[in-house]
User: Which sequence fits this backbone?
């Protein structure tokens, strides 16, 4: 760089981006250059700014900009620290490479010295005994028992197989095929559906005449010729037909994708066969609740939601007189903006008789899961709504809306007997299946081995399909 200058010419204050190992040199050059410019008290600040803007390391620049109250001394210190760390890392890497090279060189030198040490005595005394590398015994030269022996594997004479120095491929997935004294190595890939032959090898073999053979060749294999340098590939079909592989067992993997194997179980809203009857205490007087106000902004959305669940067969309109009329409760889901339709059953719950079925606790379930290594969680799709009610029970759930009265055809959320009734029904569905734990609308299926888990999962999904119980695929977790 040319730092020739004239006094009072600040336009000469220039410096290109510097490499990482010249920070201190750059700082000194900048200070020398600044002496010839009339920067006065701005000199240190301008030099600091040139260092920040001139560095070609984004990491160092980011650290400099992040530093509060950055001065020239701090900037130089940060740059020098980064420069020193880079030098140390470079030195460490070079030391590792040198050590590895030295070890290899020393080993080679030791081997050569040992060989020379063995050869030297032999030159002096041809009849001296020595440890033979051909047979492994100690004997006089020219008296080796392996002399004249020819090893079948390497086709070389005068040594035993144990001391053979020829290298043989231990690859078990490569098959040698001979075509007119030319060897072609095929890689057997049972996952491949086609056979692959590189174009270069095909050109070498295309004009070769086949000689007569006593073996009848009755398998025609189709090859895809590719213009690549990959190894020839023999697929599953050809390998099987040529008896190069033996298929021991074919595993059915339909449970690997339960949604495809059991599409009905993951589609729509299920319906269990036996209807539920709500038992009422006759000593409790029926209550008719007034209509609750619905915000104007939700009226159209409420109307659409009522129509949607009516089409699903969850509710129906009520025209006849009823003893019970409950209040409508609308809950807006925060994430999707959808509405959940419920009713306030506080008065009705005072009259409902519970079945007092024991609900499982977490401790009960975890105790029975001892030894489980594979676990799948199944979630019922709107579980309560899959349990239909008889007509008398339906009218008990009548609720009033701005668009008329409705009643539930399926068991609604909120009534005090819902958990016990649904838990009892689901427990009865899977009671004779091993490795299945139910917790209201969640079902846990487990196994101590992968095969046991998959077999049990298949039985559970079959049972769901038989009884009409559907699952929510978005909330299911399969092992």
Assistant:
């Amino acid at each position: 760089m040319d730092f020739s200058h004239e006094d009072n010419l600040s336009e000469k204050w220039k410096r290109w981006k510097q490499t990482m190992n010249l920070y201190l040199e750059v700082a000194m050059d900048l200070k020398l250059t600044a002496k010839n410019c009339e920067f006065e008290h701005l000199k240190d600040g301008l030099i600091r700014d040139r260092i920040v803007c001139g560095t070609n390391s984004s990491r160092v620049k980011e650290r400099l900009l992040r530093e509060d109250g950055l001065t020239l001394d701090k900037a130089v210190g940060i740059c020098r620290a980064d420069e020193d760390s880079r030098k140390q890392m470079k030195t460490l890497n070079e030391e590792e490479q040198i050590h590895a090279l030295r070890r290899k060189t020393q080993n080679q030198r030791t081997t050569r010295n040992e060989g020379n040490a063995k050869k030297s005595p032999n030159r002096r005394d041809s009849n001296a005994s020595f440890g033979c590398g051909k047979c492994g015994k100690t004997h006089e030269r020219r008296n080796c028992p392996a002399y004249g022996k020819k090893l079948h594997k390497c086709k070389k004479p005068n040594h035993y197989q144990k001391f053979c120095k020829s290298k043989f491929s231990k690859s078990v997935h490569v098959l040698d095929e001979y075509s007119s004294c030319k060897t072609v190595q095929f890689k057997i890939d049972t996952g491949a559906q086609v056979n692959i032959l590189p174009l270069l090898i095909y050109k070498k073999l295309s004009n070769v005449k086949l000689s007569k053979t006593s073996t009848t060749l009755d398998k025609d294999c189709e090859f895809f010729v590719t213009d690549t340098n990959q190894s020839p590939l023999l697929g599953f079909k050809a390998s099987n037909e040529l008896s190069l592989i033996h298929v021991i067992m074919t595993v059915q993997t339909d449970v690997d994708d339960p949604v495809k194997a059991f599409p009905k179980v993951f589609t729509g809203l299920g319906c269990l066969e036996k209807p539920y009857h709500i038992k009422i205490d006759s000593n409790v007087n029926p209550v008719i609740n007034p209509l609750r106000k619905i915000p104007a902004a939700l009226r159209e959305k409420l109307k659409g939601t009522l129509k949607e669940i009516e089409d699903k067969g969850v509710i129906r309109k009520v025209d006849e007189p009823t003893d019970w009329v409950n209040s409508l409760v609308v809950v807006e889901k925060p994430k999707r903006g959808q509405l959940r339709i419920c009713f306030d059953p506080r008065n009705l719950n005072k009259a409902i008789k519970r079945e007092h079925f024991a609900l499982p606790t977490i401790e009960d379930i975890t105790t029975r899961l001892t030894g489980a290594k594979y676990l799948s969680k199944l979630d019922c799709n709107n579980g309560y709504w899959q349990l239909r009610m008889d007509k008398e029970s339906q009218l008990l759930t009548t609720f009033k809306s701005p668009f008329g009265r409705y009643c539930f055809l399926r068991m609604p959320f909120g009534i005090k007997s819902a958990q016990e009734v649904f838990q009892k029904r689901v427990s009865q569905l899977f009671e004779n299946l091993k490795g299945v734990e139910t917790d209201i609308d969640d079902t846990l299926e487990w196994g101590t081995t992968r095969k046991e888990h998959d077999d049990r999962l298949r039985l559970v999904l079959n049972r769901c399909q038989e009884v009409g119980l559907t699952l929510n695929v978005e909330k299911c977790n399969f092992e």
Summary: The mean pLDDT is 76.
